[in-house]
Design brief:
The chain is α+β, with helices and mostly antiparallel strands. The chain has one domain: Nuclear Transport Factor 2, Chain: A. About 40% of the residues lie in helices and about 45% in strands. It has helices at about 1-45, 50-55, 70-80; strands spanning about 55-65, 70, 85-100, 100-115, 120-135, 135-145. It has a six-stranded mixed beta sheet with strand order 2-1-6-5-4-3.
């Protein structure tokens, strides 16, 4: 019994010794995902085809709070044509969790819009799913819900 406890204690000690190194490996990915989210925010306010296409996966499923779902082509096209026009976007309460080559991001998105020339305000809770391919994080899925009153 003592031998098993000693082995368990040694195993735990080894795991604890490696824990900082394992955690440190995840930090760069979390930072890289956070940076990708920020690049997407900027590209949505000031649309740039090359920037948007570099950030978004070809298989994108982009869910709006009203129920509409965009593909990569419709998401990028609506931003470039100003059908979907963000004057400003602010993100808050953001969390990033990386699991292998997938990252789950949650945040609150508030901002001003000028969709088809009509001023508006948005206040949403957003879930983003990012996938790492060939060393690059790309948005695979997004779903927004209106913030409860």
């Amino acid at each position: 019994m003592k031998r098993r406890l000693n082995l368990a204690a040694c195993g735990l000690a080894a795991l604890l010794a490696w824990a900082p190194a394992l955690h440190a490996q995840g930090v760069p990915d979390e930072q890289a995902v956070g940076a990708a989210v920020e690049r997407l925010r900027v590209a949505m306010v000031d649309p740039d085809r090359a920037a948007l296409e570099a950030l978004v996966a070809d298989e994108l499923s982009y869910g709006h709070s009203g129920g509409r779902v965009d593909t990569k082509a419709s998401f990028v096209g609506d931003l470039l044509s100003a059908k979907s026009d963000f004057v400003s976007i602010e993100l808050s309460a953001q969390s990033v969790r990386v699991v292998g080559d997938v990252a789950v991001v949650r945040h609150r998105l508030t901002g001003a819009t000028l969709d088809q020339g009509k001023p508006g305000q948005v206040d949403l809770h957003v879930l983003l799913v990012w996938h790492k391919r060939e060393g690059q994080w790309r948005l695979l899925a997004r779903q927004a819900v209106r913030t409860p009153a």
